[in-house]
Every structure is written in structure tokens, then in C-alpha cells.
Amino acid sequence: ETVIPKLLEDLQQALFDKALKNREEHTYTAHSLEEMKQVAAEHTGFVKTMWCGGLACEEKVKEEAGMSSRCMPLAQENLGDTCPVCGKPAKHMIVWGVAY
Description:
Layout: H1 3-21, E1 27-29, H2 33-42, E2 46-51, H3 55-65, E3 67-70, E4 92-98
Parallel strand pairs: 1-2
Antiparallel strand pairs: 2-4, 3-4
């Protein structure tokens, strides 16, 4: 019962470390939660989006896309005016990564 969760955690950490080393090549843009899910399913890396800052939206991304917010040193971009999760006005660019 404890071996499988530990193996999954180790795998997620290895994927995160690989993406972090090559973040320029492994950072994708998404404009909706569906795009975020698709990127998470197809690629190893990070997804940058705009965000309203709401905890409920962060929880939804974590639950549905398997990602959580990350502090990443990326140049700020205007990726839209609304949060891709709830549609409320968004003022911050945020980077999401594998949740672990």
C-alpha cells in the first residue's frame, strides 16, 4: 500500500525536475481548463495561463488537470484578460506544474 504512492511521487518529482531543467522547451500556453488538461496529458512540463487568484480555481486545476501553481522566473506575458477556469477577470500570469 505504501510502495505505489511512493513510486508515483518519485516519478512525478523526476518529471518535474526534467521539465525544470528545460523549462524553455517544456512550457506551454493554455487559454482554458480543457487546454490545460490536454497539455498535461500530452506533455511533461508547465502550463502558463492568466489567473484570477481564486483558491477555488487553483483547487479545480489541481483536481481536474493534476497541476498546481508554481513560482517560476518567467517573463510576464498578457495571455488574456480572463481566468481560464472561472472566466472572471485575471490580472496575473501563473505557471502550473505537476501536482505532487
